[in-house]
């Protein structure tokens, strides 16, 4: 199968635009393939030295409701007791610091590289595999927004 990185770049450009970032370019740092068989998993981790990461599922077992092996995300910042004060970009109704996605063939998930994630233990037929392609990317941009310094002593 021939794979072109511009599929990821097109989706990543949409995410970057949605985030309000003006990018001059994308540097796809690396791409790699994953093959998960029944019983396999991938421990909780993040991707340092990149801005965005992503995964595209090329093949997934279709096991119905008893499928096990979701992609789980965990926000390492935890849940702030007053998180409603802040305007979160995802605007989820769920206040949890964890959420999961069920892999489906053709699904592309792009996320900030600092976001911890894992592939939960797979459970499907012994002759089946979940195959995915992942990437890490940097973006070429000029930072125009800075933290606001508050002076409480004036």
Structure description:
This protein is mainly β and 154 residues long. It contains one helix and eight strands, in the order αββββββββ. It has one helix at 6-18, and strands spanning 23-37, 42-45, 52-59, 71-74, 98-101, 108-112, 116-119, 129-141. A four-stranded antiparallel beta sheet has the order 1-8-3-6, covered by helices on one side. A four-stranded antiparallel beta sheet has the order 2-7-4-5, with no helix packed on it. The chain starts with 5 loop residues before the first helix and ends in a 13-residue tail after the last strand.
Strand fraction: 35-45%
Reading side by side through the largest sheet, how are the strands ordered? Answer: 1-8-3-6
* Structural Rg: 18 Å
Low-confidence spans: 84-89
Q: How many alpha or pi helices?
A: 1
Termini separation (Å)? 64 Å
Q: How is the biggest beta sheet arranged?
A: 4 strands, antiparallel
Helix-strand topology string: HEEEEEEEE
Helix proportion of residues, in percent?
under 10%
Which overall shape is indicated by the principal axes computed on the Cα atoms? globular
């Amino acid at each position: 199968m021939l794979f072109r990185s511009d599929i990821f770049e097109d989706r990543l450009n949409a995410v970057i635009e949605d985030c309000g970032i003006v990018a001059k370019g994308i540097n796809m740092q690396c791409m790699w393939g994953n093959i998960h068989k029944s019983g396999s998993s991938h421990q909780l981790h993040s991707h340092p030295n990149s801005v965005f990461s992503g995964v595209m599922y090329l093949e997934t077992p279709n096991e119905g409701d008893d499928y096990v092996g979701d992609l789980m995300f965990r926000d390492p910042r935890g849940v702030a007791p007053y998180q409603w004060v802040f305007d979160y970009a995802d605007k989820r109704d769920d206040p949890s610091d964890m959420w999961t996605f069920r892999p489906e063939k053709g699904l592309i998930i792009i996320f900030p590289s600092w976001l911890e994630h894992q592939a939960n233990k797979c459970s499907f037929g012994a002759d089946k595999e979940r195959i995915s392609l992942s990437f890490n990317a940097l973006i070429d941009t000029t930072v125009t927004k800075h933290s606001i310094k508050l002076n409480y002593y004036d």
